[in-house]
Amino acid sequence: MLIMRKSSLTILLVLFAKLVSLGCPEKQQEVVVDIDKESAKFREAAMHGSLGPVKTLSRHADVHQLERSSGRSALHKAAFWGHVDTVEYLTKELKLNVNQQDYNGDTPLHDAARFGHLNVVKILVENGANIAIQNTDGKNVMEVAQLYEKHDVATYLQGPC
Prior knowledge:
The structure is a single chain. By secondary structure, this protein is an all-alpha fold. Helix content is 56%, strand content 0%. Helix 6 (108-114) packs parallel to helix 8 (141-147).
């Protein structure tokens, strides 16, 4: 019985020595994500057309969150600046609302039409953007394109003759 105790004690000492030699595991740090900050970074990356960061940030952001001061989405920002690849990703992969109106009643399509981003206009229309939605000035997308003399956009929106 004494032999059994010594061997058990030896095993315990060996295991304890091994544990001590390994050191204490680092304390796991809890990752706290501020979803509002991540969502703001996500919208900013979309505004700059930074597709890589948009994809990365989309994992921790509320991609549907609107900017508090304007009611604008990431899709508004990407469409405003004409970022084709970003608009495509936001509409096709993340399924952002193409008809979301900001506080001025503008949709991403209004923004793209205003600045003559024809390829963005096409992507938005192909993904269900409604060309009849009016902003707070009472203007639909066609009227915005005509007002800002974006003739190629207006021609596209009219459809085949």
